[in-house]
Amino acid sequence: MFTGIIQAIGEVTAMQSRGGDLRLRVNTGKLSLDDVGLGDSICTNGVCLTVIELPGDGYWADVSVETLNFTTLGKLESGSRVNLEKALTATDRLGGHIVSGHVDGVGEVVSLEEDARSIRFVLRAPDALAKYIAHKGSICIDGTSLTVNAVSGAEFELNIIPQTMAETVFGQYRPGSKVNLEVDVIARYLERLMQGDNAASSGANAELSMSTLAESGYLGH
User: Model pTM?
Assistant: First the structure.
């Protein structure tokens, strides 16, 4: 579990193909690993990865085929910069929002422009994720917890302050850049719960309908 408050920018220093998947080495820069052990989790550009080796100045992690297929990690190269956050502890402040490190899909930067001292970004989410993105709701972009300023269809706006631009990889985004998206976990579970008993039926992941809501007791007669 994470908060979406980026603690450091790391750098990919090695990528090794391993039987169809990938082994990744990340130099963590200013991020201390003194309290990190083998098996611990580090959020890497929004993806929860398990530490399998600790060479001293960074960590090695295995990236599965599933993760390569549904995130941008397979597009990284040696020298790529990545957002890093260590797993949340029970005594930490929850400064962002609840982030699982389980990426829901890949979005794209549509445009960016200056807005006073901030930068206003427009991004496009996959159509299937648009329903989870709400005005003034939370979204995680490459591991960064952010507030949605406006929504129009599958596109949404973010206002990125100078601090965030300096301390995350947002400074390297350009129109066309691909980013990992994680929608608000509460929205995902709420949708599943609203399916009621129908959730156990085949095809329960289909769109909610008025009849489904009525059968589950969410609509009055």
Answer: 0.88
